[in-house]
Amino acid sequence: MATVETAPGFVRQDGKEKVTGTGRYTADLTLTGMAHVKFRYADHSHAKILKIDTAKARALPGVVAVVTQADLPDVRFGGFVQDRYLFARDVVRFEGEIVAGVAALTEDIAAEAARLIEVEYEPLPVISDYVEAMSPDAPLVHEGLADYEKDENILANGNTMAFHTIVKGDADAAMAGADVVVKSHYRSDASQGVPIEPRAVVAQWQGDKVTVWSSTQVPYAARAGVAQTLGIPEADVRIIVPLLGGGFGAKCDLHFEGQVAAIARAAHRPVRLVFSREEEFKAIAQRREGISMDFETGVTRAGELIARRATLILDKGAYCGEGGFLGQMAAMHACGPYQIGAIKIESHLNYTNNQPSGSVRAPTAPQVCWGLEQHMDEVAAAIDMDPVELRRRTLIEEGAEGPTRQVFDHVGVKDTLEKAVEMIDYGRELPEDEAIGVAIGWWPCMPASSGAYVQMNGDGSATIVTGAQENGSGAVMAMPMFVGQELGIDPDDVSVIYQDTDVAPWDMGSCGSQTTFNSGRAILAAAQEVREQLLDAAAEQLEADRGDLELTEGSARVKGSPERSVAIADLVGEIGTVHGKGSGEVLDAPEGDTGGCVGRLGNETFLAPQLITQAAHVKVDRETGVVRVLRVAAAHDSGRILNKKGADGQVFGGVVMGVGLALSEGTMLDDQGRQRNPHLLDYKLVTCSDAPQIDVEWIEYDSVGPRGSKGVGEPPQVPTAGAIANAIAKVIGRHVGELPMTPERVWLATHGNGA
Amino acid sequence: MSPSFTSASTLDDALAAVASGARPVAGGTDLVVGARQGKAPLPNDIVAIDRVEGLRALEISDAGLRLGTLVTHGDIVANADIRNRFTALADASAIVGSHATRAQGTIGGNVMNASPAMDTGGPLLCFDATVTLRSAKGERTIGLDALWTGPGKTSAAPDELLVSVDLPAPGEGTGSCYVRLEYRRQMEIAVVGATAVVVLGDGNVADARIAITALTPTIRRVPAAEKTLVGTAADADAVKAAARATAAAATPISDVRGSAEYRRAMAEVMATRAIAAALTRARGGSVPIPASPAMYGAKES
Question: By the 8 A CB rule, do A276 and A198 touch?
Answer without folding.
Answer: yes
